[in-house]
Design a protein that fits this description.
Elements (H helix, E strand, L loop, with lengths): L1 H13 L7 H28 L4
């Protein structure tokens, strides 16, 4: 197991840096945006339909 981790670490060190593509940046942005919007909707539903005592 330890030798496998060392090999993986060596391969990661050998990899070249690849910047994100514009499409990948859009996907990340949309994912974060949708997550925030859904979280706000969940909080609103929680406070509206299940008020605390």
């Amino acid at each position: 197991m330890a030798t496998e981790n060392v090999r993986i670490a060596d391969e990661i060190k050998k990899m070249e840096y690849e910047p994100l593509l514009p499409v990948e940046k859009k996907l990340i942005g949309w994912s974060i945006g949708i997550g925030i919007v859904l979280l706000i909707i969940l909080i609103w539903v929680s406070y509206t339909f299940f008020p605390g005592q």
